[in-house]
Amino acid sequence: MTFAEIEALFAQCQSWEQRYRQLILLAKQLPKPEDQVLTQLPLIEGCESQLWFKLFRQEQQWHCIAYSNARILNGILFILQTAINEASSEKLKNFNITALLQQLKIDQRLSKTRLNGLKNIEKIISNTVTELL
C-alpha cells in the first residue's frame, strides 16, 4: 500500500468512527516483530502505551521497525512506516508527524500522551537521518 492510497482511504471517511475503523484495519497490516527482535528495539518514552521504534537505512532507502501494544497506534505506525519508506532523506530531516496526522484528520482525537510518544519518534527520525547522512 502506498501513502497516496492511505490518503484516498481517509479522504473517503466522513466521521471519526470511520477514521478509527481505518486505523484498526491498517493496524492489522503492521507486522509484529518477533519477540526477540522486539526486546532489542528501543522503547519510546512519553506514550501511555508501549511503543517501539527504530529507523534504519538499507540500500539507500529508509525503513523502520515499529510496534505498539495499542491497536490505534499500530494503525498510525503503519501509516508512518509507509510514509518513511517513500520519503527522501531531506524530507525525513524535517518530518512532521503532527502535519501528517492533520492531513489525514486523525490528530484531534489522540490523547496528549499518545502524541508525546509520536513526537518523540519525530525527533528520533530527524536525529537519525542527520547522524547517518
UniProtKB/TrEMBL annotation:
Domain of life: Bacteria
Xref: InterPro entries: Fe-S_metab-assoc_dom
Annotated Pfam families: SufE (PF02657)
Chain ranges of the Fe-S metabolism associated domain: 10-126
Coiled coil: none
Family, similarity comment: Belongs to the SufE family.
Protein name from the UniProt record: SufE family protein
